[in-house]
Amino acid sequence: MKTKILSVASKRLVFKPNLADYEKEYKRFSYTEHEFELSYLNDHKINAAYNAVDRHIISWRKNKIALFWEGEDGTAKKYSFLDLCILSNKFANVLKKYKVKRGDRVFIFLPRVPELYISFLAILKIGAIAGTLFSAFQSQALEDRLGNSDAKILITNSELKKRVDVVRKNLPKLEKIITVEEEFWKEIEKASSALHIAAMSKSDPAFMLYTSGTTGKPKGVVHQHYAILHEHLTAKWVLDIKDEDTYWCTADPGWVTGIAYEILGSWSNGVSTLVYEGRFDPEKWYDLLSRYRITVWYTAPTAIRMLAAASAKLVKKYDLSFLRHMASVGEPLNPEPIYWGLKAFGKPFHDNYWQTETGGIVIANYPSLPIKPGSMGKPVPGITAAIVDDKGHELGPQKEGNLALKPGWPGMMIKIWRRAEKYNSYFKNGWYITGDKAYRDEDGYYWFIGRSDDVIKTSGERVGPFEVESALIGHPSVIEAGVIGKPDQMRGEIIKAFVVLKKDVQANDKLKEEISLFVKKNLAGHAYPREIEFIDKLPKTRSGKIMRRILKAKELGLPIGDTSTLEEY
Ligand code: WT7
Q1: Which residue among 153, 360, 404, 541 is least crowded, i.e. fewest CB within 10 A of its CB?
Q2: What pairs with residue 106 in β-bridges?
Q3: What is the pLDDT of residues 207-264, one digit of tens each?
Q4: Does 7 score more than 70 pLDDT?
Q5: DSSP assignment letter at 262
């Protein structure tokens, strides 16, 4: 099939992209040559938070607004780079008072409020490891993450704290909970703003995020301070962030996009960033885009599809002429939303691809290159990508296989917390295997096919089926459950659970609702099954593993495939 190409001309570029000549930069690229773009402490030591914020206070950007914050209720606040520097220094001193040391884990469980950003910077500044927890998580998910990481301090608010209190007795290492209503500002007021920023080696850990695979509980993906170099360069080249921009990344720092491109890479480029605390709402989003005169916008396919589904009249009500560059990430961006974007905004969304593990964008569409709608684009300078077979041997163009990357870029995870064998299992024949299936075309563009494991992407959020299954069997009526991602027009996938009930339990719609709510309340507000089907027996291998592949085939009405390992079904 011949693919359509959106030429650069049709993108009507009226600005000079930061990455003007992709091919040239890709060929000559080396990280060491770009190290001058970072600022160093003594002895070639670095600190990612220093690079994101503090270094700008010795430049003309000192009083520039770093953070435009708007609350759900319309309250608006502004913080300059200097404000963020001082506040994070002060909070760093508060953490020191609580005896937080290098390498200690300090977790943040907050909605998108200014305290989240201040805390994150403060934690990095003293060399501790910052962990973030998405505010939709409930007690079980919190216990798993805070327990595995042995978090010493948690920063949260009084409402969210209640979910931690329920499991606090199982978290003996958690010494202190700081709430934004109580200690946070009181302590900041008393604290000194003078701080000796921790001089870190490039490979020292800076932050960690729990993410899901097919099996087992979520794993703690750890990133180094040096990741800032990768995040800085990709924010500059892929998001095309310039000094005069006002930038809006709609992600939440509970996920890696919020950390890499709402805090580290974006601020490292000195840009003014908008953070909106509230939920997705088409009218509100257009209002924010126009009121803050957003020029660069980084969002996700589900949000774009939801905007497209909202009234077509709505978008015309707002002046969105300031928008200069738009990018999307997290799940496949099908061509329709790109064409809708062209119609609604006069410019296309630029799809790009990466993962929690990669720490930054690895494959992307760039302002200076033609877009092939439906393709994730080409590897960013510094990244060697390939399609490999299951043994790790490279495949040629148009061949479906595993999307793989050559290890060694600064954003790549440095370890999985306390699970060395899990970390090692990512590599084959010298390649980092992403877990995604894709192919490359003759022009070097990569095309996403799907996951090669059972990981679910619902509204762009990554959910492990095992976690949901574990939560389901906590319900008194449930014996076992198998969980899959069911394709969904709007959300990409929704979570569907096949549930085996205990004998004598009345199977009805009310029970489905009850079970679904049970997971929502115990595990997470975003990771509950929207659809439940009762089933007599789950397909399993002879060794007792649930075969989700079979459940999925059944759901889609597809042939079941190889069942040689299946116990009688
Ligand atoms: C998984 C990673 C994206 C960074 C934050 C999310 C899927 C990501 C794309 C894309 C198709 C995509 C992959 C990947 N994914 N971007 N442009 N097209 N699929 O990171 O939560 O760790 O999820 O999201 O399956 O492995 P994450």
Answers
A1: 541
A2: 130, 153
A3: 999 999 888 889 999 999 999 999 999 999 999 999 999 999 999 999 999 999 999 9
A4: no
A5: I
| CATH annotation of 456-556 | 3.30.300.30
Domain boundaries for CATH 3.30.300.30 within the chain: 456-556
Q: Whose CA is nearest to atom 11 of ligand 1?
A: 332
Interatomic CA distance for residues 304 and 306, integer angstroms: 5
User: How far is the CA of 355 from the CAs of 94, 150, 467, in angstroms?
Assistant: 33, 24, 19
All CATH 3.40.50.12780 domain ranges of the chain, comma separated, are 10-440
Is the CB of residue 299 below 6 angstroms from any atom belonging to ligand 1?
no
- Does the beta carbon of 458 sit less than 6 angstroms from any atom of ligand 1? no
Average pLDDT of the chain is 95
Task: Please give, one letter per residue, the 3-state secondary structure of 36-87.
Answer: HHCCCCHHHCECHHHHHCHHHHHCCCCCCEEEEEECCCCCEEEEEHHHHHHH
Q: Whose CA is nearest to atom 17 of ligand 1?
A: 353
Give distance in angstroms: CA of 183 to centre of ligand 1: 37
Q: What is the maximum span of the chain, computed from C-alpha positions, in angstroms?
A: 72
Q: Given this model, what pLDDT does residue 1 score?
A: 45
Cβ neighbours, 10 Å, residue 397: 12
Q: At what angle do helices 301-309 and 335-345 cross, to 10 degrees?
A: 60
Fold of 10-440: Rossmann fold (3.40.50)
> Does any ligand 1 atom lie closer than 6 A to the CB of residue 447?
no
- For residue 330, report the distance from its CA to the centre of ligand 1, in Å: 4
Nearest residue (CA) to ligand 1, atom 24: 330
What pLDDT, on the 0 to 100 scale, is given for residue 559? 84
- Report whether residue 436 contacts ligand 1, using a CB cutoff of 6 Å: yes
CA of 9 to the centre of ligand 1 (A): 29
